[in-house]
């Protein structure tokens, strides 16, 4: 039951986009996503990625704090984060830039906030690939070290987000506060013995 | 080019005959309006948004295709109502646009508080189809109804020493949800300004309607500025204050982020916004796969009418 709900949660933002695209391309509802559907999808995908990223981090903290049996869903949310971030980049390249790749490269180099987003996305890709079970086992302790980067991704994601805001800081304030709380928890988390490292560490 | 460009209006011309005539009409009109006070009637007093207006068509923008009405009235940057482009339409009902007064202050002979109807009664309306280029790199074609700003300002007899004119939007947190927001960094009220010669340019326009109807609140009812060669944020909405001054007035976005939004804010494809390129724009409405990305033109394509205003100026520094 919970399993199904988590699947729905991860996929709902994607289904919504598909539903909207069907509405505006096939059902004549041309302004379903407003007069700039590409921009709408771009923002929706970015917000979904950020929300899912923070859900992932909250699972880690909840796991450490209360040993809730939800850590098994963390991987799904993490991969979901990457999926939406990739969709966000694709929306930018296809709907906003009209697949003009030189323009894309130009934008990535010229706009610091996009460079920050790109960095976050590259890190996310690394994390998504290494979340494959075989790789995870092979990497062992280094997997844990590597996946700590997710906190950097969160920091970069929030920076990327606030950098493009013109006004309206509610969500930014919310994510910033959440990030501070999650980091504090992470830093204060109880260390346990790790057989691979041969010393105590935080999972 | 369909639009004839008229010579620059010099300071001395503030008192030329046509304006003088205008002034007389203004005073006559005020008298007429005063006499009407007994009978509460005025073509605008009872106007609600969407009422059909009487106006003449002009050749401005004859070749441009206006965006659909629902796009123009449903996709707005009007942060007084919220930062989402759908917020203005959602919350527009909270603003009461009637009755409406405009306070005129500063270096002019006729200052004070004016009823909107009294101002409107002086000015026959015309339709002008203008391109609106937002600083966010999208644009729309809008068929405005209104009258030249020059005519409005002349009614107040600006003094020769007035080099700038500043405008202010209503500040009232009770009516504007965006002004109540604790998460906004905007110092209300919203303020904008023009150099006097810019304001007197033939293109500068006061809009009270679009698509032949009086303005919807989300578009800046009951009266707003339209300066089509500048980024959209210069075209201040729901104006309650006009101030004549000899100093360059503070403008809101410039105060928030001076490196991103200048006082002039002329549409200029060569000067990028620090966070995005201004060399092209998305013409709205745009489809999902056919993004109408077009090249942005210098002064939004109005160079013929306005380029002379900036001769000898470094537009890279005066962005
Ligand atoms: C190559 C990588 C990326 C590119 C090119 C990119 C590009 C963009 C662009 C162009 C915008 C819109 C700015 C505007 O409309 O002014 C944006 C907004 C945003 N991006 Fe990214 N981004 C990238 C990566 C990311 C990542 C990894 C995340 C999240 C983890 C993210 C989250 C967001 C969010 C939340 C917004 C704000 C959307 C809104 O306006 O509500 N982006 N990004």
Query: Which structural class do the helices and strands of chain A define?
Result: mainly alpha
What is the total tally of β strands of chain A?
2
Q: Helices and strands of chain B, in N-to-C order? A: HEHHEEHEEHEHEHEEEEHEEH
Portion of residues in beta strands of chain B equals 15-25%
Got a strand count of chain B? 13
What's the CATH class of chain B, please? Alpha Beta
What small molecules does this complex bind?
A: protoporphyrin IX containing FE
CATH architecture of chain B: Alpha-Beta Complex
Average pLDDT metric of chain A? 92
At CATH level 3, the topology of chain B is Sulfite Oxidase, Chain A, domain 2
Number of helices of chain B: 9
| Structural domain tally of chain B | 1
Report the C-alpha radius of gyration of chain B, rounded.
Answer: 19 Å
Structure characteristics:
heterodimer; A: 203 residues; mainly alpha; two-stranded antiparallel sheet; 2 strands; 75% helix; globular; B: 319 residues; alpha+beta; Sulfite Oxidase, Chain A, domain 2; eight-stranded mixed sheet; five-stranded mixed sheet; 13 strands; 18% helix; disordered N terminus; binds protoporphyrin IX containing FE
Protein described:
The complex is a heterodimer of chains A (203) and B (319). Chain A has 203 residues and is mainly alpha-helical. Chain A has one domain. A two-stranded antiparallel sheet of chain A has the order 1-2. In chain A, helix 2 packs antiparallel against helix 3. The radius of gyration of chain A is 18 Å and the shape is globular. The two termini of chain A are 27 Å apart. Chain B is α+β, with helices and mostly antiparallel strands and 319 residues long. Chain B has one domain: Alpha-Beta Complex (Sulfite Oxidase, Chain A, domain 2), CATH 3.90.420. Chain B is built from nine helices and 13 strands. In chain B, the strands form two sheets. In chain B, strands 1, 4, 5, 8, 9, 10, 12 and 13 form an eight-stranded mixed β-sheet that branches. In chain B, strands 3-2-11-6-7 form a five-stranded mixed β-sheet. Chain B is globular, with a radius of gyration of 19 Å. The chains are: A mainly alpha (203), B alpha+beta (319). At the A-B interface, helix 1, helix 2, helix 3 and helix 4 of A face loops of B. Protoporphyrin IX containing FE binds next to helix 2, helix 3, helix 5 and helix 8 of chain A.
